[in-house]
Structure formats: structure tokens, C-alpha cells
Design brief:
It catalyses: acetate + ATP + CoA = acetyl-CoA + AMP + diphosphate. Its EC number is 6.2.1.1. Belongs to the ATP-dependent AMP-binding enzyme family. One of its GO terms (molecular function) is AMP binding. The protein has 664 residues and is of the alpha/beta class. Helix content is 31%, strand content 22%. Strands 12-11-8-6-7-14-15-23 form an eight-stranded mixed beta sheet, sandwiched between helices. A hairpin with a 3-residue loop joins strand 28 and strand 29. Helix 7 crosses helix 8 and helix 10 packs across helix 11. The longest helix has 17 residues. Bound molecules: 5'-O-[(S)-ethoxy(hydroxy)phosphoryl]adenosine (WTA). 5'-O-[(S)-ethoxy(hydroxy)phosphoryl]adenosine binds next to helix 11, strand 20, strand 24 and strand 25. 5'-O-[(S)-ethoxy(hydroxy)phosphoryl]adenosine (WTA) binds next to helix 11, strand 20, strand 24 and strand 25.
């Protein structure tokens, strides 16, 4: 919740849409939404006449096998929302066939491989053939509509092919970020009851091989129900173990199949995918997204928020393992028949110009990344950016965490050359697509504010304690949404009760986002960060409980408490406090071992930046750990600890402050 936009209010610098968007050069179309009046008219229609608004947009952007007659039903109170429920469609048909039929040579994916200079393209015609071939393989494995398939792959077009092949048959995919450990993968495969895992022999990141298949092998030791592992050959490494008949090579299996596969129409409300994300408790939850509403949300936000027109080349640097990769590398761009860049490497390989060289080489028109990458690249200096030709860029976006005004301004001036619109998009795995965002041709931006709600999203700021809605401007509280929208998650796989308890019960009648927010005097929304036990490291969500249980898994650990510390580069970092069992000696070697334990159990993204061995944790008299105190101490705010009357042993405070100041 600490961020330097805390002080910013209505007086912040304001940036109107750039001239280049408002008055486009010859051959460019005007932005889809080119004034606030236009935004307001459409927004009002989406709220006041939702049936009319959504019927029009859902028919404009999607092709239905069976048209829907009913737009929306259910309520946030009951948690039984459904959209376009009597309509049927196929997601892969919408994302691939429509464009392959019309214009097979149009480029669907530009694949920027790890090694520079090895880019290649996949046209819509080629994509259709790849998706059909793979779908037939999955069908030959006995998979049928409703079955769930795990995908654990590097950032290569085949990861998208795997997702689309599932969608073609009405299978549900669950992509697991390939940076997660074997244990995390196993947990997700088991929870989603997958019988098939799709993977690659190895991945490559910054020339370093990632032993993807070996991690799958390790994970599957505890998942006996997995019958098939389909392996794409990415590096051709000789070291990859292959256990036939369980393991099947992708290329061999596809070669044996008919090249066409008919798409299976599904209900708009049939699930398209599960995506595991961290919540307040230790166990990651499988957020369920449905077909029709989700695809509409992804397509529509991309169209308006990035102002996508024919011929644009869109690049989102997120991994396919996260929701941003789902909505804005795969589903959104393809549903619009656009060209999407799949970036396999890292922003600093071979040097800090990689992103900007990418923009230059592929004439990228819209670029979307995370504040943590912006902050990291900024540290390398402007030359890495300015030596590249970025004149093709029109809209540049940010997602995943609050962007501090400094980073915003650098992004705008140095990357955007003050000629692009900057869109700070706020959303979540659960929202499926953007919910608060500027529109590039209309919104006057304020650095650090995600500005205004997207169409159909009715926001509220609630008093955190009473749940009362705070009316008017200049208010702060927790962020909530007052009605369902098409791309919102419908449930948590196998645990609808948890869905209700996490999102819909805390403030009945509202969707509770878990973030603090303010609405300034001009009605702009400012996201203040999570109000629950979720830590956001470089835009990756982790729960404190998840990291704590990984630490407790080590036999030296008696107790642990994990909190977020503010971090200049990654937004937040993980700070772990650990007490040891009797007989274990506190030393650096043990600390390293504990850090390694977390990496092995969850993955490198969960690595604690600071791990402090203490004799005692601050607790209430009834023995509950008071994390609030730890949070304040690591934020350097030990002088603002507030009410300490519940603390059982106040004498430990001085020790804590001392330990932290030597460790951080
Ligand atoms: C945070 C990522 C401020 C927020 C799409 C949210 C943001 C969580 C922004 C969701 C933003 C995302 N400004 N905070 N523009 N975008 N967040 O599920 O705390 O990985 O609740 O989805 O990221 O993270 P998730």
C-alpha cells in the first residue's frame, strides 16, 4: 500500500491523448473512441442498457454457432452469474478459422526466439493446420469436451497452439507458468485432475536451457493419473528422457493425424480454462473462465484499450502462464484477427535493447509490459532505447502493479517519445480482462492512475470496515465492482464456496477485488495495492501463506511469517521471518538452505529477498502472529506501529527493528 502516488491527487500532471492519435496521419484510421463524450455515451449505454450494448458487441466481435437470445442472468449476491448462456460458439474457430478462411496469409504470430535474429512467422492458414493437427492428437488420446489438459511450455507459438487445440475440442486447459517448480506443477495437475500434460523438451531463456521435460517427469512421480505427456521438440537436446508409451513426441503424433479437425461448438458458459493464482491462503486456486464472455472481454478490451486496427502488430511481453498472456498474447489478438508477438527471451538478452530492437524489427504498433520491466530497463540508461527506431509505436501499456509516476513519465517520454498514449491497465486473473483503464484516443491520463472504468464495469469504493459505499469524489477505501461483467471468473475449480467467500461474501452484493483504491477529486481511480495477504513481486502474485508453508516444510523451521517489503525494482519483495526448532543453529548456510527450499517448492519467483532468523515472532496473547508489525518494521515505519496492546511481549520489538536494519 505504500507507493509514491499516495500523495498525488487531482492536481497531478495531466496528459491529453497525443496529437498523433487524435489526428492520424494519412492511411491511419481515427481511434475507435476519440473523445471523452464518446466514451461516456458508450459507458452509460453499457450500464443503463446492458442488453442492447452487449448484444451488439457480442455479435460484432464474435461468431456464434447458435445465437444467444439471453444476455445476462444471475447476481453477485447469489454468485450464479452467466452470460449469453443459450448461445454456442467455438473459441478456436473465432480465433483462427475466421481469419484463415478470409486471409490465410495474414500473420497470426511473430515468434521472436530466444536467440536474436531467429524470428519467424506463423500465418493464420498455418495456425489453423497446427491447431487442427494437435486437436486430432488430443482426440486420439480419448480426451473429450470438459476434460482438463495441463500445459507447461516455454513462450513459443506451440504453447498457443496447445491452448487453441484444447479449445477446438471443448477441452479445458490449465497453463502452468514454466518457471514453477515440479511440486507446484504437480499440485496443479492433481487439483485439475489432468490426464494429459503438454510440454517441450527444453526451454531457452537468455541462452540458458530450462529443463522443462525433466521438471514434468519429476512432477508426475506424484501424479499417477497422468496417462500421456505430449512433448514438443524445442531444442532437440539429447539429454531428454523419454518414457514411451506415456511420452509421445508432438511431431510424430501430429504426422499421424488428419490435417483438419472440426471445431466442437460449446455453450458460452462452458469453461475455456482454469488458471491457478494465489489468494490469501496457502493453496493456489483454479480460477475458472468461461468461453463466450471471456473471449468477448479479451477481444473488446484489446480493441478499445490498445486501439487495434487492421495491420497492427501487437506485442505483450507477458508469459502465457499468466492471465495477461492468455488474454493479450493469445485470445484477444487472435479474436481480432490481429498479429501478436510471442517473445521467448528476456528483456536484457543479449543487452537492455532487446525490447526496443524487437519494436524496431517488427514495427510493433502497440507494446504492453509490466512496471517492473520498465523500472529495470530504465536503470540501464536511455541509450539502449533511443538508439532504436520506435516510430511505429502508438500505444504503450502497463499492467500488473501500480506504476510509479517516475516510471510512467520515463516510459512516456523515452519509450513513447511523448507521441504515444500510455495506458495503465488495472485488472486481475479473476476479471479476465481490463476493468479500469484509459482509452488512448479519449482519456486525459494522470501518471499512476488507471483512470476510469471500462465498459460494463460499475465500480464502487467501500469503507473497509462497514462496507458502506463511499459516494462522490475524493474518497479512499477498498475497490469493489457492483455488477457482473462478461469476462469475470465464474467459480474456483472444485470449490465454489471458496469463490463466494473470497470475492462475493466479504461485501454482499459486490465483487471484492482485494485492492485498496481512491477516487480523486476528478473521479480518477488510483489503485493502492493489495489489502489482503497477497504479495505482488514484479507483477507476480504470491500468497504469504504459500511461502510460509514452503518454509515450514524444512525440518529446521519452527515458525515463519512472511510479509511484503517495498522494493524499488520489483514493487514488493518477499521478506521472511523464521524461528528455528531447538537444536538448530542460526547461520548463513542454513539461511541459504531455507531460501533454496522455497525456490524448490514453489519456484524462483517466490525467492525471499531477505530471510531473517529471529528468536521470537511478534504475537498476540492468544498466540496469533501480528504480521502488521512485521510489515511496518520492514517498511522502515517502526515508529508508526499503532496499537500494541495485544502484543504479548513488547520487549521483542527492539530486537526485531535491530535485526531488520542489519538485514535490509
Ligand atoms: C495488481 C494481473 C495497480 C493488483 C493482470 C491486482 C495492478 C493484481 C495493476 C492482480 C495496475 C494489476 N495498477 N495494480 N495497473 N494491474 N495490479 O491476477 O493488486 O496477476 O489485484 O493479474 O495485480 O494480479 P494478477
Amino acid at each position: 500500500m505504500t507507493s509514491d502516488n499516495q500523495e498525488l491527487t487531482a492536481q497531478s500532471a495531466a496528459y491529453p491523448p497525443p496529437e498523433r492519435l487524435v489526428n492520424p496521419e494519412e492511411g491511419r484510421e481515427k481511434p475507435w473512441i476519440s473523445s471523452m463524450a464518446e466514451y461516456e455515451a458508450l459507458y452509460n449505454e453499457s450500464i443503463q442498457q446492458p442488453d442492447k450494448f452487449w448484444t451488439r458487441t457480442a455479435n460484432e466481435l464474435l461468431t456464434w454457432d447458435k445465437p444467444f437470445t439471453h444476455v445476462t442472468q444471475g447476481s453477485l449476491n447469489e454468485g450464479n452469474m452467466a452470460w449469453f448462456s443459450d448461445g454456442q460458439l467455438n473459441i478456436s474457430y473465432n480465433c483462427v478459422d475466421r481469419w484463415a478462411i478470409k486471409d490465410p496469409n495474414r500473420v497470426a504470430f511473430v515468434y521472436e526466439a530466444d536467440e536474436p535474429g531467429q524470428a519467424s512467422k506463423v500465418t493464420y492458414g498455418e495456425l489453423l493446420a497446427k491447431v487442427c493437427g494437435l486437436a486430432n492428437v488430443l482426440h486420439s488420446f480419448g480426451l473429450r469436451k470438459g476434460d482438463t489438459v495441463a500445459i507447461y511450455m516455454p513462450m513459443i507459438p506451440e504453447a498457443a497452439v496447445a491452448m487453441l487445440a484444447c479449445a477446438r475440442l471443448g477441452l479445458v486447459h490449465t497453463v502452468v507458468f514454466a518457471g514453477f517448480s515440479a511440486a507446484s506443477l504437480a499440485e496443479r495437475v492433481a487439483d485439475a485432475r489432468c490426464r494429459v500434460v503438454i510440454t517441450a523438451d527444453e526451454g531457452l531463456r537468455g541462452s540458458r536451457p530450462i529443463r522443462t521435460k525433466a521438471i514434468v517427469d519429476e512432477a508426475l512421480k506424484t501424479c499417477p493419473e497422468v496417462e500421456r505427456v505430449l512433448v514438443f521438440r524445442r531444442t532437440g537436446s539429447e539429454q531428454v528422457e523419454f518414457n514411451a508409451p506415456r511420452d509421445v513426441w508432438w511431431h510424430e503424433a501430429v504426422a499421424a493425424q488428419r490435417p483438419y479437425c472440426p471445431p466442437v461448438p460449446v455453450s458460452a458458459e462452458d469453461p475455456l480454462f482454469l488458471l491457478y493464482t494465489s489468494g490469501s491462503t496457502g493453496k493456489p486456486k483454479g480460477v475458472v473462465h468461461t468461453s463466450g464472455g471471456y473471449l468477448l472481454g479479451a477481444a473488446m478490451t484489446l480493441k478499445y484499450v490498445f486501439d487495434i486496427h487492421d495491420g497492427d502488430v501487437f506485442c505483450c511481453t507477458a508469459d502465457i502462464g499468466w492471465i495477461t498472456g492468455h488474454s493479450y498474447v493469445v485470445y484477444g489478438p487472435l479474436a481480432l484477427g490481429s498479429t501478436s508477438v510471442v517473445f521467448e527471451s528476456v528483456p536484457t538478452y543479449p543487452d537492455a535493447s532487446r525490447y526496443w530492437k524487437l519494436v524496431e524489427d517488427h514495427k510493433i504498433t502497440q507494446f504492453y509490459t509490466a512496471p517492473t520491466a520498465i523500472r529495470a530497463l530504465r536503470r540501464h540508461g536511455d541509450d539502449f532505447v533511443t538508439k532504436c527506431d520506435l516510430s511505429s509505436l502508438r500505444v504503450i501499456g502497463s499492467v500488473g502493479e501500480p506504476i510509479n509516476p517516475d516510471a510512467w513519465t520515463w516510459y512516456n517520454e523515452v519509450v513513447g517519445g511523448s507521441r504515444c498514449a500510455v495506458v495503465d491497465t488495472y485488472w486481475q486473473t479473476e476479471t479476465g480482462s481490463h476493468v479500469i483503464t484509459p482509452l488512448p484516443g479519449a482519456t486525459v491520463a494522470k501518471p499512476g492512475s488507471a483512470t476510469f472504468p471500462f465498459f460494463g464495469v460499475e465500480l464502487a469504493i467501500l469503507d473497509p470496515t462497514t462496507g458502506t459505499e463511499l459516494e462522490g469524489n475524493d474518497v479512499s477505501g477498498v475497490l469493489a465492482i457492483k455488477r457482473s461483467w462478461p469476462s469475470m471468473a465464474r467459480t474456483i475449480a472444485g470449490d465454489h464456496k471458496r469463490f463466494l467467500e473470497t470475492y462475493l461474501r466479504p461485501y454482499p452484493g459486490y465483487y471484492f477485488a482485494g485492492d485498496g483504491a481512491s477516487r480523486d477529486a476528478d473521479g480518477y481511480y488510483w489503485i493502492r495495492g493489495r489489502v489482503d495477504d497477497v504479495i505482488n513481486v514484479s507483477g507476480h502474485r504470491l500468497s504469504t501463506a504459500e511461502v510460509e508453508s514452503a518454509l515450514i516444510g524444512h525440518n529446521a523451521v519452527a515458525e515463519s511469517a512472511v510479509v511484503a517489503a517495498p522494493d524499488e525494482l520489483t514493487g514488493q519483495s518477499i521478506c521472511a521471518f523464521v524461528t528455528l526448532k531447538n537444536g538448530f543453529e542460526a547461520n548463513n548456510k542454513l539461511k541459504e538452505e531455507l531460501v533454496k527450499e522455497v525456490r524448490t517448492r514453489i519456484g524462483p519467483i517466490a525467492t525471499p529477498k531477505v530471510l531473517i532468523l529471529v528468536d521470537e515472532l511478534p504475537k498476540t496473547r492468544s498466540g496469533k502472529i501480528i504480521r502488521r508489525i512485521l510489515r511496518k518494521v520492514v517498511a522502515g515505519e517502526a515508529d508508526q506501529l499503532g496499537d500494541l496492546s495485544t502484543l504479548s511481549d513488547p520487549s521483542i520489538l527492539d530486537v526485531l527493528v535491530r535485526e531488520v536494519s542489519t538485514a535490509i
